[in-house]
Amino acid sequence: xxxxxxxxxxxxATLLSQMIQRLPLSDxxxxxxxxxxxxxxxxxxxxxxxxxxxxxxxRRLRTLNIDDFGRYLAxxxxxxxxxxxxxxxxxxxxxLTAFFREAHHFPILADHAKRRGGSYNVWSTAASTxxxxxxxxxxxxxxxxxxxxxxxxHASDIDTQVLEKASSGIYRQEELRTLSQQQMQxxxxxxxxxxxxxxxxxxxxxxxxxFTQLNLLAHEWSxxxxxxxxxxxxxxxxxxxETQEKILRRFVPLLKPGGLLFAGxxxxxxxxxxxxxxxxxxxxxxxKERS
Length: 291
Fold this sequence. Notes:
transferase, three-stranded antiparallel β-sheet, methyltransferase, 12 helices, alpha/beta, globular, Rossmann fold
């Protein structure tokens, strides 16, 4: 009787292969990556982010068939206009979002919009995959109506990959669990057949949101301001104090008189800038207008 051969299960073999092929990320290369993403996008990478950086960038190296982080960094630095820079930024950008995230902001937005005259104009500064700007648009459509000239939402992000998803307006149905049945029916189309379980934003709502790529560190912002409200939520946490102050200063002329600035739950803009004061839960107004 022949001795049976013990074979490792496929997943074990794959794991073993990945361990053998792990590329070294030296302290020097990690520091250089941190410097480059700070220069390009203002993102500060702490030491504890090293494993995250490795896991995200190693995919780019393998896609490009590069077996050394030094060679990858040289590829970037030898061509300041290389398309790989955008892939580098996309890889290191964190995109955590959800429909009606930090839900207390939306009744405040609705009440503010009711009291304003003319077309209501909003900027979502970190649109990610679209959940925030579509939540803003739904709130305004329910408050002001969805007719032409009622409101507009300008949505920007530094990451081109997430903007592609946002522009498509296609989501898994489970991602819309915070929406009411009325909102689902009014603003989304359900997929059928092979698209079952998926939904798409209706064109009437999608037409009120304009998506564009924008780096908050860029010298110039091409924006259709000024705005009645600016959403800058859970963005500043990735920047150092100097960058935070600079961005907040640039928001000032972009807010209409009486406009609102919405922040994330862990951000305190009045501690960063004297230009803004806290007027509600993570909602700010311009200090010069404070009565």
